[in-house]
């Protein structure tokens, strides 16, 4: 059982004009086995939240705390965060020319577990996970994300998640750009991970369609750098129908 606790998190991003505040007091608690969906307008700071938790150097924490089972996540290096069981599937996965998917996965697994995985079971695990995600085995020998289609990049993110078995996974728009079949396949991958490892999931999305496959326990509306409202799955339906107008008006007059 793990708990990621975000308390009153304030974050600025470095810009040419100096630091620009993006997150303005985020409070969020994610326990093992829970799925939290975050929905909110473009530019509200959702990816900033994901990157800040993962430790991206572009973002400066100006206030608040992030802890995993009481340990100070913000004091950890990016590697330490990964070893502690944090995983981020990025909205725009980066290409790593010259590093094969197979090598990348094995290196990541070794770094996170502190020892190399036993070769025979590992090869079987990778093959099985790729088959489940309907990824052709030839992807194992391709450079990470290089020339991958948008949907292939997202499958590769979930492949990592299934093999690295994080305690807390942040999925930033993993559903964007997926066709209907890929959406189901990727969702099944997340659900497999949930069942087999009890991972806590933070799912950032613009669409309720993924929430039909991955059932959220909580839905948070993210506006102007903080959580503006919280509810259950019904809140996602309401947002899809009504949009964010009522929150934006509130933010403008606040
Ligand atoms: N380097 C930067 N310079 C200036 N502004 C930045 C920089 N990085 C991020 N921002 C701003 O921070 C705000 C939040 O961006 P973020 O990517 O977190 O939004 P988001 O909620 O993930 O949006 P989307 O739904 O479009 O993915 C945006 O207004 C963005 O322009
Ligand atoms: Mg984003």
TrEMBL record:
UniProt-listed InterPro entries: AAA+_ATPase, ABC_transporter-like_ATP-bd, FeS-cluster_ATPase_SufC, P-loop_NTPase
GO MF entry, a single one: ATP hydrolysis activity
Domain of life: Bacteria
Location of the ABC transporter domain: 4-249
Pfam family, one: ABC_tran
Keywords for this protein: ATP-binding, Nucleotide-binding
Family per record: Belongs to the ABC transporter superfamily. Ycf16 family.
Protein name: Fe-S cluster assembly ATPase SufC
């Amino acid at each position: 059982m793990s708990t990621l606790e975000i308390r009153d998190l304030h974050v600025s991003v470095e810009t040419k004009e100096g630091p620009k505040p993006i997150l303005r007091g985020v409070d969020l608690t994610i326990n093992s086995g829970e799925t939290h969906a975050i929905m909110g307008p473009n530019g509200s700071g959702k990816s900033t939240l994901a990157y800040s938790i993962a430790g991206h150097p572009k973002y400066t924490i100006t206030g608040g705390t992030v802890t995993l089972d009481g340990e100070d996540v913000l004091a950890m290096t990016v590697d330490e965060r990964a070893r502690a069981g944090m995983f981020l599937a990025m909205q725009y996965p980066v290409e790593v020319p010259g590093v094969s998917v197979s090598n990348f996965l094995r290196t990541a697994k070794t770094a996170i577990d502190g020892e190399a995985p036993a070769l025979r079971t590992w090869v079987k695990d990778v093959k099985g996970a790729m088959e489940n995600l309907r990824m052709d085995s030839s992807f194992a020998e391709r450079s990470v994300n290089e020339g991958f289609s948008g949907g292939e990049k997202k499958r590769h993110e979930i492949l990592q998640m299934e093999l690295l078995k994080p305690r807390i996974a942040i999925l930033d728009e993993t559903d964007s750009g997926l066709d209907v079949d890929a959406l189901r396949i990727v969702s099944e991958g997340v659900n497999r991970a949930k069942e087999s490892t009890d991972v806590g999931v933070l799912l950032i999305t613009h669409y309720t369609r993924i929430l039909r496959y991955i059932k959220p326990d909580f839905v948070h509306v993210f506006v102007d750098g903080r959580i503006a409202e919280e509810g259950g799955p019904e809140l996602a339906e309401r947002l899809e129908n009504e949009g964010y107008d009522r929150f934006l008006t509130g933010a403008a007059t606040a």
